[in-house]
Design a protein that fits this description.
Mean pLDDT: 87
Radius of gyration: 29 Å
Number of strands: 21
Oligomer: single chain
Strand content: 25-35%
Shape: elongated
Distance between the termini: 50 Å
Structural class: alpha/beta
Largest sheet: 10 strands, mixed
Helix content: 25-40%
Length: 476
């Protein structure tokens, strides 16, 4: 078997010859010879609302979906352009709403209402072509009389496991599979005649057929049966054969250097080349601008780590949140001491310790560490008075906030009140930060800062009623 580098996106056959990644990856496809894709986006649906009977993503997930589809659309196009074989198994067409990023406002003050504008989107947006895919399901499929040689052997082996989810209308593609009745296109190929790269659309294959895998054991593991192992090996060989036939079906002699001289160029070629250069320059500017926006988005949405992070990532989220509240905040470390957060205003200094627990509350042991930090800080020559201790806790961090128990144990509450320490659940800090970012107010920020100095035991942040409702509205 030819040593081809094979990448699978969304299909894990657990073969060492095939590297598998999920569709959330930012991988380049240019490192691979053969790429297999299953275009499901269900992983993005976590926490989605519904609108007109379909999933509707949050603003954050909407941006992620649009960005991810744009990434794969570009990568697939580049892969085919550079001679790669890209095979797409057409899973169910998923339709859902994503936010456009625009909002409309009505009313004023407490009666103000915010309406998010959303638009219909589909997982098939990852493909770099004008794809009109109509939902239609079935199993009766046949090879076309012409142009299907590239997959004929594959189809003989695996047609019994195939089913179509859509019928296709693809401008520029060559049909290779149709319905047995009506000759509707359900599989197609697009060739790049300069590089012999291929973009191939095939019906869905039942990779998880019950004949191929055993039932889960007591530990939740699933194993391949002997028939499943035979299927995986045949599938791997068939994919390599498709790539070989696709490249041999139209071998092109590489253009010699002398043929590239200006003397042999067509006038239209020069004009088109100039146009292409202008487009690529504009694309470079747009991509640079896009990266800046991506960086800004990443900086903002990283604050959601207050809800689920631990360790250094949680500490970074806390420091940035304190800065948003108006504190001067930074970590501290020297040869003798290391503090998660030292933050201050004109009113005084505070020292923070951060802790996250997966499925339990923060215990009293962390208060002992915080007390030691406060004492070590006071020993330093440049410190004149003890700083106030603040314990930031992200208890039950792997559970959705509304379903969590108390972030701190009862002993932790009692000890904090006894020694004058402030307890701050990072979920509550997230609410305050989100409120300030969504609707900035120095007056509210000042009240929140004061809560750090006034409070003992569990923090009591001031309440703030923005009076904003959130509705959805579709746009064409």
């Amino acid at each position: 078997m030819s040593k081809k580098k094979i990448l699978s996106i969304g299909i894990d056959l657990e073969l060492e010859e095939i590297e598998c990644i999920n569709i959330n990856s930012s991988a380049s496809l240019l490192d691979w010879d053969i790429i297999l894709i299953s275009p499901t986006l269900w992983g993005f649906y976590t926490g989605a609302d519904t609108y007109q009977g379909k999933h509707c993503f949050t603003d954050y997930n909407s941006a992620k979906v649009r960005q991810q589809c744009s990434h794969w659309c570009r990568e697939i196009g580049e892969a085919v352009k550079h001679g790669k074989t890209v095979i797409c198994f057409l899973t169910k067409k998923e339709e859902f709403y994503i936010a456009t990023g625009e909002k409309t406002y009505s009313g004023t003050g407490r009666n103000q209402k915010t309406t998010r504008l959303v638009t219909l989107f589909t997982n098939y947006k990852i493909f770099p072509c004008d794809m009109k895919a109509t939902v239609s399901q079935g199993k009766e499929i046949k090879l076309t009389p012409k142009n299907s040689e590239v997959i004929s052997s594959f189809w003989n082996d695996f047609s019994s496991l195939a089913s179509y989810n859509v019928v296709l209308d693809l401008n520029g593609f060559t049909p290779i599979l149709t319905t047995k009745v009506g000759d509707k296109c359900v599989g197609a190929i697009l060739k790049n005649h300069t590089t012999n790269g291929s973009l191939i659309f095939l019906p869905e294959i039942d990779f998880e057929n019950q004949k191929f895998v055993t039932e889960e054991d007591d530990e939740g593991n699933v194993y391949w049966t002997e028939e499943g192992n035979q299927f995986r090996r045949r599938f791997l060989q068939s994919i390599v054969d498709i790539d070989k036939i696709a490249h041999n079906s139209g071998e092109i002699t590489p253009e010699p250097d002398w043929a590239k001289r200006e003397f042999y160029q067509f006038e239209d070629e020069k004009v088109i080349t100039s146009e292409l250069i202008s487009i690529e320059e504009e694309l470079a500017r747009v991509l640079a601008k896009k990266q800046l926006v991506i960086n800004k988005l990443s900086e903002v949405n990283s604050l959601r780590g207050l809800l689920y992070e631990k360790g250094k990532p949680l500490e970074k989220c806390i420091l940035r949140s304190l800065e948003i509240l108006g504190f001067a905040a930074q970590p501290f470390h020297n040869s003798e001491s290391e503090f998660d957060a030292v933050f201050s205003t004109d009113q005084g200094r505070l020292i923070g310790e951060a802790e996250g627990k997966d499925n339990k509350a923060i215990n009293v042991e962390k208060l002992r560490q915080l007390s030691m930090n406060v004492n070590e800080d006071l020993i330093r020559e440049e410190v004149d008075a003890p700083a106030k201790g603040v314990l930031f806790g992200n208890g039950y961090r792997m559970i959705e906030p509304r379903d969590r128990g108390d972030a701190f144990t009862e002993k932790c509450h009692l000890a904090a009140k006894a020694n004058g320490t402030l307890l701050v659940p990072t979920c509550e800090l997230f609410k305050v930060v989100k409120s300030l970012l969504d609707d900035p107010s120095e007056e509210y920020a000042a009240k929140c800062r004061q809560s750090f100095f006034d409070g003992v035991g569990l923090v009591e942040f001031p309440q703030r009623d923005l009076g904003i409702a959130d509705e959805l509205q579709a746009v064409e």
